[in-house]
Design goal:
The chain is α+β, with helices and mostly antiparallel strands. About 25% of the residues lie in helices and about 25% in strands. A hairpin with a 2-residue loop joins strand 10 and strand 11. The protein is extended, with a radius of gyration of 32 Å.
């Protein structure tokens, strides 16, 4: 029996996918539920499992865009599983052939010519005027001679030739990457995006982490007390103080949310992924860290789903892990705001009239000015700063041990 395998629907709004990688070859024997291909949609990369055991015949090439419901391969379920490799017969040695000597024809006498790369007198004059060395020109004349036309068309080099590699590779972007590109361009073109900045003294958070991180990790099964839980808690608090930042445009309407679904930008093997931490305002420090770890591992292993990345009312992105000191993050549409974290650098600052060195981080809020005014945007970022610089009172309710569930 020949089974026709069709592309399943990865999500309600997805009409086609792209064959990213075949994990098997044409004619291979596959087992039921074995992953046979990775397919890219505009939202995620998914594995395609075999629906039955048998010999597979591929009907699409890597890089092909295939409509949902289209046939991508056939599986012959009646084929028996091969017991092992088929022995290959040894090649039969051919009898040695008698050697036949053929005398090469004598070359006809050739008139003397210039060596390859030698310019004609007219070409040399032009090259001298352009200050171009003849050895950098490929001649098109007889025997490689540089003609006057070669010299006229020659362009002076913009740099010193080094003999290094100058290869060029052209690679088609994945469907996921193309969709990300479209969304980023749309965000720039369709929103009134503006960015405001502030800086955070990270000393209080560093002190808390140094005091409790070992006990936190031991108590919660290897879940680390990182910076993301502090930032997520600070953001959800600020969103409740400034609800316009937790809303978005829908035509002529403003859609406001009484919950905080925080999109966390993570880097995966297929590029940037933005899975969502649902109802983050109700999660503890442990809950936030455990959920971020779960989603990051799924993104790294290529197991992230459309549902994991659907929705989200606000985004946090951390360019600091790559060494970014300052940037203007792009809004994740249709959301209205995104907070950018950056690297932590020790800098001298004024504290009570004295110069002290503290670990400082620049933070950036990009927002849609159509729906968020300057008062809300600046107030939101100041609220985030206040919470991060006073975490014991504003994020831990003056009881870090209870907040960290120790």
């Amino acid at each position: 029996m020949i089974l026709e395998m069709k592309v399943p629907s990865p999500g309600e709004s997805i009409k086609e996918v792209e064959i990213a990688t075949w994990l098997v070859k044409d004619g291979d024997y596959v087992e039921k539920d074995q992953a046979i291909a990775e397919v890219d949609s505009d939202k995620a990369t998914l594995e395609l499992p075999a629906e039955a055991s048998g010999i597979i015949t591929l009907k699409a090439e890597e890089g092909d865009a295939v409509a949902v419901g289209a046939i991508v391969c056939l599986i012959d379920t009646a084929a028996a599983k091969p017991s092992g490799a088929t022995p290959v017969a040894a090649p039969v040695a051919e009898a040695p052939k008698a050697e036949v000597k053929v005398e090469a024809p004598k070359a006809a006498p050739v008139a003397p010519t210039y060596a390859a790369g030698t310019p004609s007198p007219a070409a040399r004059k032009i090259l001298d005027e352009k200050n171009i060395a003849p050895e950098t020109i490929v001649g098109t004349g007889k025997a490689g001679r540089i003609t006057k036309e070669d010299a006229v068309n020659a362009v002076p080099s913009m740099g010193t030739p080094t003999g290094g590699s100058r290869g060029v590779e052209r690679t088609k972007l994945s469907m996921l990457r193309r969709k990300v590109s479209e969304r980023l361009v749309a965000a720039k073109n369709e929103t009134a995006m503006l960015t405001t900045f502030n800086e955070v003294n990270m000393t209080p958070i560093n002190n808390l982490r140094n005091e409790y991180k070992d006990a936190f990790k031991a108590k919660h099964g290897g879940v680390s007390l990182g910076y993301m839980s502090f930032f997520t808690k600070a953001v959800t608090r600020a969103l409740q103080l400034y609800p316009d930042v937790n809303s978005m445009m829908d035509g002529d309407y403003k859609v406001a949310y009484d919950f905080c679904d925080i999109s966390i930008a993570v880097s995966g093997p297929k590029g940037l992924m933005v899975p969502v931490v649902r109802n983050a305002e109700n999660l503890t420090f442990r809950g936030v860290e455990a959920e971020i770890k779960r989603l990051a591992l799924r993104a790294r292993d290529g197991q992230i789903t459309v549902d994991d990345m659907t929705g989200g009312t606000f985004t946090i992105t951390n360019g600091g892990v790559f060494g970014s000191m300052l940037s203007t993050p792009i809004i994740n549409p249709p959301q209205s705001g995104i907070l950018g974290m950056h690297n932590i650098i020790e800098r001298p600052i004024a504290v009570n009239g004295k110069v002290e060195i503290h670990p400082m981080m620049y933070v950036a809020l990009s927002y849609d000015h159509r729906i968020i005014d300057g008062r809300e945007s600046v107030g939101f970022l100041v609220a985030v700063k206040e919470a991060l610089e006073n975490p014991v009172e504003l994020l831990c309710d003056n009881n870090p041990k209870k907040a960290f569930e120790l």
